[in-house]
Design brief:
Blueprint: E1 3-7, H1 11-15, H2 20-30, E2 36-39, H3 41-47, E3 56-59, H4 63-72, E4 76-81, E5 86-91, E6 94-100, E7 102-104, E8 116-118, H5 122-126, E9 137-138, E10 143-146, H6 150-156, E11 158-159, H7 171-182, E12 187-188, H8 190-201
Parallel strand pairs: 3-6, 11-12
Antiparallel strand pairs: 1-10, 2-3, 2-9, 4-5, 5-6, 7-8, 9-10
Length: about 200
């Protein structure tokens, strides 16, 4: 069952694992009135009970605002992907990839989106992710946004695509294969396996 704005009880011990520079950057953004969420592999691994490492942040702040806020707090900033709303902030030696909420257009070259559109909702941003277990977001107070049932699939050991847009990037087949190898107790959802077969049969992979 998908979750929205759910305070996950297992998140409490996870909060102590969030590195101080990450928490501080979240608070820096929030005190300026922006939303800021930890996304991606950090949330997935933390909920699996695996010590997470790199933390990525998604925010409704545009990259220019992120840069300004970070510089005001003495951080270093690298404009690593401003076309896609991304900057890398170095705070207390900790590199943080911070990206504006966005949606993506079709992948005409089957590798890169034709364009990106900055959006205002974390749910819209999560919709562009590849797998449900990677489409969750954690707030510094323990609230988890999980619109696609990632927690359910994580507990059930299922690798499931978020949307048909999965098929637009054939590299995602390799990515899901790596996940299956790293997580041998996980299985690929039948509908995701069928989509991957269609990608191969159509020559898109």
């Amino acid at each position: 069952m998908p979750y929205e704005n759910v305070l996950h009880t297992t998140a409490y011990p996870l909060l102590s694992r969030i590195p101080a520079p990450v928490l501080e950057m979240l608070f820096f953004l929030e005190e300026k009135g922006f939303e800021a969420w930890i996304v991606g592999g950090f949330v997935r691994d933390a909920l699996r009970g695996v010590t997470p490492h790199d933390a990525d942040i998604a925010t409704n702040a545009r990259w220019e605002s992120v840069k300004e806020i970070a510089l005001d707090h003495g951080c270093k900033v690298r404009e690593t992907g401003t076309k896609h709303g991304t900057v890398t902030v170095i705070h207390q030696g900790y590199p943080l990839e911070i990206t504006t909420f966005r949606s993506e257009a079709i992948y005409s070259d089957h590798r890169h989106p034709n364009s990106v559109t900055f959006v205002s909702s974390i749910t819209e941003d999560l919709a562009r992710r590849d797998l449900t277990i990677n489409a969750m977001a954690l707030a510094p107070d323990g609230f988890i946004i999980d619109p696609f049932g990632g927690q359910h699939d994580l507990a059930a050991g299922i690798l499931r695509h978020v949307s048909p847009a999965f098929a637009e990037d054939p590299v995602r087949i390799l990515r899901i294969a790596r996940f299956a190898a790293r997580l041998p107790s996980f299985s690929i959802a039948p509908e995701t396996m069928a989509l991957m077969r269609r990608m191969v049969d159509s020559g898109e992979a």
